[in-house]
Write a structure and sequence with these properties.
It is built from 15 helices and 17 strands. With about 500 residues, it is an alpha/beta fold. It has 3 domains: about 90 residues, Winged helix-like DNA-binding domain superfamily/Winged helix DNA-binding domain (Arc Repressor Mutant, subunit A); about 120 residues, Alpha-Beta Complex (Aspartate Aminotransferase, domain 1); about 240 residues, 3-Layer(aba) Sandwich (Aspartate Aminotransferase, domain 2). The longest helix has 28 residues. The radius of gyration is 29 Å and the shape is globular. It binds pyridoxal-5'-phosphate.
């Protein structure tokens, strides 16, 4: 119990220094509540101190009394305040946050490492830090400005309102059944994949899927064949699992799969639909050879089907998984391109025994995905919102591809040659070999445009006279400006 005098004198010293901003996003009653809680944290208000009556405080702060009452109610529900019999509002004797006791002098930073790390082949990473205003011809990033955020927000809210407790608890590590059903319905129709939701595992993007597959398939030293040029983040997942990567060249028909007969890998990672980064579609003959070699030599084909939806001229080719009689294909897909990468929703379809193993590993790695997000996305799929969005952005990306190709012909013709790709989100451009591509990329960055030279995708890291230019995340006006800046950077190089 606190002595009334002490309480009064303490409170007499409390000057209610509450700065209220009526234009702030935070409602005024919460601003008052946060300010009082902060004063308790700083020790300006102590356990048992009486707070002024709501009328008094309201007058001092020039707010409505109901606002102060709402602030007091909020603080009571959080455990900062208590009301006593006989009236009066007091700082609670049992505060919700008790500052922990230090047992030794505190350290200010965690820069020092006092043990050894296991050797690992992880690439150095950093968040891309292009100066503001840089136009980034990102290698395969969709335009997040086009994402249907309002329907997504409504669906997320509905998911929580209808099934909040279940979705916020532990759930099915294979992903919400509702989402697997919606994916199975869409993908059996579009990609010839199984229509049974039990054949799907929902993962954190396709990167999460590839990582799980690598853990399930690879023991240290196993050989994994990869396309060269290719997709480095997938290579890293296999290397992290202990794989030895063997590069296989790519030509105008896709990966040179006949080389796998001598390599006899444990697994092959491939992007047959649009080879990453060259955008070539693997020919029917190569596809059949690949399936046959995998059957005979019992290796797994990890098929990364990352941008199936984006096809502009002609018809897309069904994935290898749709013709897999021998149970050799592990099909990996993603909603990152068709919807939004930040949602982190990918999926795997594979023979049942592998799916079971992947699920067991998933429980160890991150237990499950975000079930509320999964339900929200399932609703968007059930309502065909995703499919409508895909059609919209496909039209838009088609126009962007044409705008980029046209701008290149106009401003960089003779230096850069592009064949418009039949689909996908990037063009693969051939560069005049007399040009120092690395120097051009550096100067282009200074001129406010970023693009990736072939070296970035090369297994051996060597330069080649090609570059990949993503067109999906910039609108036609931005694409034309990007090409103008590239041309400017090139002229500067020539005149330097
Ligand atoms: C070849 C390839 N695979 C997969 C992905 C998608 O990754 P995620 O689904 O993890 O976002 C990308 C994205 O850039 C990619 O280029």
């Amino acid at each position: 119990m606190c002595c009334a005098d002490v309480r009064c004198s303490t409170v007499a010293r409390w000057q209610h220094p509450i700065a209220i901003d009526p234009d702030a996003a935070l409602p005024v009653f919460l601003q008052i509540a946060r300010a009082i809680a902060e004063d308790v944290r700083r020790g300006r208000l102590k356990r048992g101190d009486a707070l002024p009556g709501s009328r008094t405080l309201a007058e001092e702060l020039s707010v409505h009394r109901n606002t102060v009452l709402a602030a007091y109610r909020e603080l009571s529900s959080e455990g900062w305040l208590e009301t006593k019999r006989g009236g009066g509002t007091f700082i609670s004797a049992e505060l919700p946050e008790t500052a922990p006791r230090a047992f030794a002098p505190r350290v200010a930073s965690r820069d020092r490492l006092g043990f050894d790390l296991a050797p690992g082949a992880f690439p150095h990473w950093e968040l891309p830090t292009h100066p503001r205003g840089t136009l980034v011809l990102a290698s395969g990033v969709p335009d997040a400005r086009l994402v249907p955020t309002a329907p997504l927000a409504r669906a997320y809210r509905r998911a929580l309102e209808l099934s909040g407790p279940a979705l916020l608890s532990y759930g099915d590590p294979r992903g919400a059944l509702r989402l697997r059903e919606a994916l199975a319905a869409m993908l059996s129709h579009l990609r010839g994949l199984p229509a049974d939701p039990a054949s799907f595992l929902v993962t954190r993007g396709s990167q999460g899927a590839i990582d799980l597959v690598a853990r399930a398939l690879i023991k240290p030293g196993d050989v994994v064949a990869v396309e060269a040029l290719g997709y480095r983040p997938a290579w890293s997942a296999f290397e992290a699992a202990g794989a030895r990567l063997v590069p296989v060249p790519v030509d105008q028909h896709g990966m040179r799969v006949e080389q796998l007969a001598t390599i006899k890998p444990r697994a092959v990672y491939a992007t047959p639909h649009h080879q990453f980064p060259t955008m070539v579609t693997m020919s029917a003959g190569r596809r059949l050879t690949l399936l046959e070699l995998a059957r005979v030599h019992r290796f797994a084909i990890v098929e990364d089907d990352y941008d199936f939806e984006f096809h502009y001229d002609g018809r897309p080719v069904l994935p290898l998984a749709s013709a897999d009689r021998a149970g050799v294909v592990v099909h990996v897909g993603t909603l990152s391109k068709i919807l939004a990468p930040g949602l982190r929703i990918g999926f795997v379809t594979a023979p049942a025994a592998l799916l079971e193993r992947l699920t067991s590993i998933r429980i160890v790695v991150d237990r499950q995905g975000d079930l509320a997000v999964e339900h929200a996305v399932a609703e968007l799929l059930e309502d065909s919102e995703v499919q409508r969005h895909a059609r919209r952005v496909k039209r838009e990306y088609h126009a962007r591809r044409d705008a980029l190709v046209e701008a290149i012909h106009e401003k960089l013709g003779g230096v850069m040659t592009v064949d418009p790709p039949a689909g996908g989100m990037a063009v693969w451009a051939k560069i005049d070999p007399s040009i120092d591509l690395d120097a051009w990329v550096t100067r282009a960055l200074a001129a406010g445009v970023a693009f990736l030279p072939a070296r970035h995708f090369a297994f051996d890291g060597r330069a080649r006279p090609f570059a990949r230019l993503g067109f999906a995340s910039l609108d036609p006006r931005e694409l034309r400006e990007a090409v103008r800046r590239m041309a400017l950077a090139l002229r500067k190089r020539r005149s330097a």
